[in-house]
Amino acid sequence: MKKQNHIYIIKHAVLSVFSLFLLAGLTSCEDVIDLNTATGPTQLVVDGWINNQPGNQKIKLTWSANYFDNSAPKPVQGAEVTVTDNLGNVFVFEDLANDGNYIWKGTGTDTLGKVGRTYALSIKNGEDVYTASSEIKRVPKVDSVVYQKETLPFNPDKGPKEGYIASFYARDLPGEGDRYWIKPVVSGKIAISKASDLTVAYDAGPSAGAPSDGLIFILPLRQAITRDSLYLAGASVGVELHSITPEAFEFIKQVAEQGSNGGLFATPVANVKSNVTNTNPNGIRPLGFFGATAVSRMETTIDPAKARPED
Amino acid sequence: MINKLLKTWLCVCLICISLTSSFGQGKQTVSGYVKDASNGEGLIGVSVYVREAETGVVTNSYGFYSITLPAGDYTLVYTYMGYQKTKQSVALTSDKTVSIEMKDESNELAEVTISTKKDDENVKSIEMSVNKVEMKTIKKMPALFGEVDLVRSIQLLPGVTTVGEGASGFNVRGGDVSQNLVLLDEAPVYNSSHLFGFFSVFNPDAVKDVKLIKGGIPAQYGGRISSILDVRMKEGNSKKREINGGLGTIFSRLTYEQPFAEGKGSFIVAGRRSYIDVLAKPFLNKDLRDSKFYFYDLTGKVNYQLGDKDTFYASGYFGKDVFGGGDFAFGWGNATATARWNHIFSSKLFMNLTGFYSNYDYSLGQNVNDDSATDKFDWKSKIISTSIKPDFTYYLTPNNQITFGGQYIRYDSRPGTATAISEGEETNISQEPRYGDEWALYAGNEQKLTDRISLQYGIRYSYFRSLGPGTEYDFIPGKKGERETPVIPGREYGKGDVIKSYGNWEPRFAVNFGLSSSTSLKASYNRTSQYLHLLSNTAASSPLDVWTLSSSRIAPEKADQVALGWFSNFKENTYEASVEVYYKKLYNQIDYVPGSELLLNSFVEGDLLSGKGRAYGAEFYVKKNKGKLTGWMSYTLSRTERLVETINNDEWFPARFDKPHNFTAVAIYELKKRLSLSANFTFATGTPATFPTTRYSVGDIPVGENYSGARNNSRIPAYHRLDLAATLKSKKKLFGVGEGEWVFSVYNAYNRRNAFSVYTRANPDTPLRTEAIRYSVIGSFIPAITYNFKF
């Protein structure tokens, strides 16, 4: 994979080089072990992202479980969920299927989200009232999605040895401090199933410390839509670029970091910061995030005839 | 401020010198160097005892000693561990120079136990909390991959811990890795590791002496708050040409020593290189064949004695770790250069003037040398320090030995110089360089009050300035414990402007009460300060960690330590034993906000938190010095904790390297003249860890949460390990003249998978399944064979 020179994954680059050395004779190893951990109280979890696209909008509410509980999370049923924008428009979300997915039914081309507006979430569940708010920031358009022929020097665990690396091109809007969530799209659907599929951008780069305002998204970010394997000819691949708030940027980044932690250079496990609060300061605090985004989207189908040649 | 200090200091020196000339009436001084008879190396810490006067001194780091006595006839008795006791009669009618050479006792193995009787340095000296390990011993101990390693040996001493295999450096009495001053011939070494933390940068064939000072730090040392690891390089054989070398599993080594100018000078050159890449090459497939993974180091030293009063030394170290493959490259390394001048002003006044240069750098890049590439990344980081350091020792009377001196260090820190080129568009993502300097002056005295009581006291004043050019940012305080936002633009400073300065008095004190001829009680106090900080938020310190200087936002780290100890020798110094207790307080310790970005972040100071630390413990140590079986056992019971606002709900939490129980044993057994066996055993409490209590999902991705917000509230399983080694000397002379030996070793002999860390994760194949993972750096036993030769 050519996703090497990313500041984020420097540690992993170090580790991968390190692993190469280990291959040459040493043996480090990872074993799954049993670990007894304490259980915290059950917490309400918000997984709610609304956007400026037409159609239904969804806010998912579940209950947290013990860390090693691998059963499906229990839905929060019977909550009253509303989103109010800064102009006073109230949008009611309802748990139509009684499965914790609270839906606002979109009608026609009307959209719930509009760039520049602020949205306040309110959840009433029994005695507890939870609130959060988020603003829809601006987003640039995606200029193109391109792909390049690639032959891996080894037989990968996943996917083909020969295939295509897809990248997208977009230019960050002038003015410092834009933040984006880059979501890979495969066969018309958002393809995020593990922490390494999460990519956020600060202007055109990976973080605030390295200035990249107004640039074309830099290389490792451009290739974020190529996940852990190469694409085959005929695959439908694309990108959704979401504008996000600084809080959402931190939230996604922390989830991604927690998911890739481990090994020699692990950092102490830190709790991911939620933007949802319980209005009762002595109540059990909630988890998760409520975010509002604007979306740019582009998709393409990989045609070997149009692919950039291998370098 | 500095001018005023300089003046005060000069006054103190002048007073000392005028005092001594009046003291000296009717007394004569005997002084000189003590050297090894076989190779002419100066011997450090030799006890020089005057039988008639019942007094004595110890040779300094260059093998020099001086004693002032009333005129008369005396017998000087020189004793040094592992060497034959040497006597010398002196008719002291005027100042005399008596330089002697001592013979290694291994030349007459049978008489060993009789020849040295006064190896009671540990009881008699004021030094406490000091561990010395003979290079001879280190070379016989079992080693990982059979590679003799100084730092890994140090980790077997009481009060020293490590996070685990593969972790760089070592932790002393609750101090961080960056709080150890690692000196190679007086030049600081910023990263003492090759291949992350597996091997240390010191070539064992070029090292003469190693001393670890954990407490009671004398006034001449400063700049780091927890310990001093003082490594002295060999000077080079001044008697004859000598070649040492070895072929190991990881390194091949070669050392060359030679005298010149009829023994007035000598030099040593030593090199090592790993060669796994060379061996692995034929087995790698075509695309991986251009992978690079090797490390090497070169060490050299030359000395020249000009007359009786002047000796010059120049020494240097250069080492690199190189990794890469295809268009990707990564490397780091240290370079140090030291020049020293020893001058004897009078038989009582000894000076050493040191100048050094030390550079640590690393780089990471992609397509750096490919001009056609439209996407590039090039990142370099380095820290350079240049220093001049005069140190004086004034041998006032046998009962008063005054030391004074100073140091100036200039720091040039470039935490990140980086450019990224994306589709031909270049962006500079560098951090600004940081400049600063550190001044220090000190004076101390080692004084024998009575036969039973001796003192060492001193004071050091250190002064640090953060200098322009540079930009300083103010930060808008947000919620406590979270990232603070910088105020842009920051304040600009011109070249040479003082951005911020700090001054610290650092008192040092130690006392020795002799309870009997073989038992003493010792106590010490020291305050230390540090203006250079390592930013590292990972479990093991990595080569990419950034060194930064104190600034308006980063206050100097400080420590206060008190220690109390009981020292005793048994059976005519065959055994030495000690018990020490210590309590250490640490101030202005650096911690990090959640999600901190420490690399290539111009506003990194907004991601730092400040807290305090405390460490306390008891160290039990018994060592057998003589006989066929030698070695030591040590047990340390200790706690190391940190307190940082907002972390762990504002309560004390154990530091990453806190290991309450730590037991080590080292045994070396001389079975026959040609065969020796050795073993190490280590047991330590597992390091602390934080585990989630709660699981929830973001989309399909499971996330862990610790409801109580605790830090390091659990522990990973205990660590224990046994290593074995056998050294067999070849029967036949190598090519008729040389000596050869085989070293067979097994690391982790009973094949335990010790956890380096335990962490939780979502299963990579089934992300919805959460599990706990034990990560072991060494997953099996590791046998190794090494061949060493000597001509």
Automatic annotation (TrEMBL), chain A:
Residues 1-24 form the signal peptide. Keywords: Signal. InterPro entries: DUF4249. This is DUF4249 domain-containing protein. The lineage of its organism: Bacteria, Pseudomonadati, Bacteroidota, Cytophagia, Cytophagales.
UniProtKB/TrEMBL annotation, chain B:
Residues 1-23 form the signal peptide. PROSITE patterns: TONB_DEPENDENT_REC_3. Coiled coil: none annotated. SUPFAM superfamilies: Carboxypeptidase regulatory domain-like, Porins. It is a multi-pass membrane protein. One of its GO terms (cellular component) is cell outer membrane. Residues 294-748 form the TonB-dependent receptor-like beta-barrel domain. Its main location: membrane. GO terms for molecular function: siderophore uptake transmembrane transporter activity. It is found in: Cell outer membrane. This is TonB-dependent receptor plug domain-containing protein.
